[in-house]
Specification:
alpha/beta; Rossmann fold; eight-stranded mixed β-sheet; four-stranded antiparallel β-sheet; binds iron/sulfur cluster
């Protein structure tokens, strides 16, 4: 297996009136070709910024981005244009990401026309193929986004993202704005498309229950940093980081898990502005002690299972 996308010590900082926001802070991980990494964390933890930085919608401050082993951290204009075709994004809210003045057909055709690589006939053929691929009915061709329900609007967003045959797609909370019944349909569509076309996904969500079936690997992010990464089944079997445990405890329980207790996080969320060295979760962690003031790095505790916590072994009865 080879990595399609790899980031090494990636940083994305922003200036604010009160200091420097460390939105993404020294993050390293990779995504194998045809696989899905589920990136999970509360809103504001930097997961969307990380996704946008990888596909160059936001500038990085430091570190490296590799695509098929090639350094694409600082592409020139021509390289960026080529990358834009290979790397696409599906947004959370298809209603605000689709142009209300364009019909469904025009929306899907826009990237094809802008690329200036296709004649009229090919564009027509491609539109039909894309509509069929994502399951949009022919009769909706000349409808406008506001005439469609949320699920169909998201299908249009997906068709548009796939128009130029990308290999890598950042799915940024693609089902969060949809009804639960529709969520499953869109998730299944993304899985089918991956099987059919071999797409590679970075699937961003605040909701762990959504990523289980679509992800091969789970990465948990807290205030700009990765705190735990593991193969999906392994992660759902066992979490070592106190924050991951709290996130998992928030998933609605089934009858089989009646004794599972919800962990309610208390304490102030530390600011991502000029953060102090040491564990950023300390202000909310019931296990925090003096050691937690020291910088913390991901350490392998099981096969492919990495955790950034000074006390992970003790907390989990391994020390
Ligand atoms: Fe809690 Fe300390 Fe581990 Fe951070 S390093 S999660 S504060 S025990």
């Amino acid at each position: 297996m080879s990595a399609l996308v790899e980031v090494k010590n990636l940083k994305t900082y922003f200036s604010s009136g009160r200091g420097t926001v460390h939105a993404v802070d020294d993050v390293s991980f990779s995504i194998e070709k045809g696989k899905t990494v589920g990136l999970v964390g509360e809103s504001g933890c930097g997961k969307s910024t990380l996704g946008r930085t990888i596909i160059h919608l936001t500038n990085s401050t430091g570190g490296q981005i590799l695509y098929e082993g090639e350094d694409i951290t600082h592409p020139n204009r021509k390289e960026l244009r080529a990358l834009r075709e290979k790397m696409q994004i599906i947004f959370q809210d298809p209603f605000s990401s689709l142009n209300p003045r364009l019909t469904i057909q025009e929306t899907i055709q826009e990237p094809l026309k802008l690329s200036k690589r296709y004649d009229k006939q090919t564009i027509e053929k491609e539109t039909n193929r894309l509509m069929e691929l994502v399951g949009i009915e022919e009769r909706l061709r000349n409808s406008y986004p506001h005439e469609l329900d949320g699920g169909r609007r998201q299908r249009v967003g997906i068709a548009r993202a796939l128009a130029l045959n990308p290999q890598f797609v950042v799915c940024d909370e693609p089902v969060s704005a949809l009804d639960v019944s529709i969520q499953a349909q869109i998730l299944n569509l993304l899985i089918e498309l991956q099987e059919e076309i071999g797409l590679t996904y970075l699937f961003i969500t605040h909701d762990l229950s959504v990523v289980r079936h679509i992800s091969d690997t789970i990465c948990v992010m807290y205030l700009g940093q990765m705190v735990e990464t593991a193969p999906t089944e392994e992660f759902f079997e066992k979490q070592y980081h106190p924050y991951s445990k709290a996130l998992l405890s928030a998933i609605p329980t089934t009858d089989l898990q009646k004794d599972k207790k919800r962990i309610i996080l208390k304490g102030e969320i530390t600011s991502a502005i000029n953060p102090q060295p040491g564990c950023r979760f300390a202000s909310r962690c019931i296990y925090a002690d003096e050691r937690c003031k020291q910088p913390v790095k991901l350490e392998e505790l099981g096969e492919g299972h990495f955790v950034a916590c000074h006390r992970a072994k003790e907390v989990n009865g391994m020390a």
